[in-house]
Specification:
Heterodimer of HisH and HisF. This protein has 219 residues and is of the alpha/beta class. The protein has six helices and 14 strands.
Length: 219
C-alpha cells in the first residue's frame, strides 16, 4: 500500500518540484490547499521559499497553522523543508520579530556579516551528522546537500540537531524531535542524498519509534 504524502500549500513555496521528488521517492503526493484535508494523509510536508513574516501570516490566516498543529498531535511524521523548517521554530527576526509555530525551541537569525562571505548561502555544502535517526538511514557520512538561504536556525537544545553545516560557523542543517524533522537544504535539489532522505521519511514510522523510545526509558 502506497504512503499518501500531503504537501501543505499556503501560497509560498516550490510545491511542484517537491511533489515530483516525493513521487520519485515512492510516495503518493498531493498538494493540499484545504487545511481540513491534512488529516487525510499518512505523512505531511511543510515546504517553503520566501520570507518568514509573509509565510507565517499566510499559515495563520488560511487556517493552515491550526490544522498543522492538529496533525502534529496525531504523531504522524511531518517534514519541514527550508523555510518550512524555520516556521517550525519559536521565532524569526526576518523583517522584524515574528512568532513561528513553536514546535522547536529554536530561533531563526540572519547569517552574521563576515568579510568575503556571501549571503545568501547558495550551493552545495557538507553535512556533519550528530546522531542517528530513521530519516538518515543509508545516508553516507559527510554527504553534500544543496542550500539556498539567508537565515539560519539556532536551536536552544543541541539534542534537537541531526546535522550541522558550516558557513562562517556551524548552523543546524537538520533538526528532529518526536514526529518532526526539519531540513534547511532542498532535498528535491540534492540528487541522490535528497531522494534517500525523502524515501526514509516516507518509510518512517514515527509512532513506533516513539513507543520504542518510551519502552527503553522505562526499562
Amino acid at each position: 500500500m502506497s504512503v499518501r504524502v500531503g504537501i501543505a500549500d499556503y501560497g509560498v513555496g516550490n510545491m511542484a518540484s517537491v511533489s515530483n521528488a516525493v513521487m520519485v521517492a515512492g510516495g503518493l503526493a498531493d498538494i493540499v490547499t484545504d487545511p481540513t484535508r491534512l488529516l487525510d494523509y499518512d505523512r505531511l510536508i511543510l515546504p517553503g521559499v520566501g520570507a518568514f513574516a509573509d509565510a507565517v501570516k499566510r499559515l495563520r490566516s488560511s487556517g493552515m497553522a491550526t490544522a498543522l498543529d492538529a496533525y502534529r498531535r496525531t504523531g504522524r511524521p511531518i517534514l519541514g523543508i527550508c523555510l518550512g523548517m524555520q516556521l517550525m521554530c519559536k521565532d524569526s527576526t526576518e523583517d522584524g520579530l515574528h512568532t513561528g509555530l513553536g514546535w522547536f525551541d529554536a530561533h531563526v537569525r540572519r547569517f552574521p556579516a563576515i568579510p568575503d562571505q556571501k549571503v545568501p548561502h547558495i550551493g552545495w555544502n557538507d553535512l556533519a551528522f550528530s546522531r542517528e535517526h530513521p530519516v538518515l538511514s543509508q545516508v553516507p557520512a559527510q554527504a553534500d546537500a544543496y542550500f539556498v538561504h539567508s537565515y539560519r536556525v539556532e536551536p536552544i537544545s543541541q539534542h534537537d540537531v541531526l546535522a550541522w553545516c558550516d558557513y562562517g560557523g556551524p548552523f543546524a542543517a537538520m533538526i528532529a524531535r518526536d514526529n518532526l524533522v526539519g531540513i534547511q537544504f532542498h532535498p528535491e535539489k540534492s540528487q541522490r542524498i535528497g531522494l534517500t532522505i525523502l524515501k526514509n521519511f516516507i518509510a518512517w514510522n514515527a509512532a513506533l519509534m516513539a513507543t520504542t523510545e518510551l519502552e527503553m526509558a522505562t526499562c
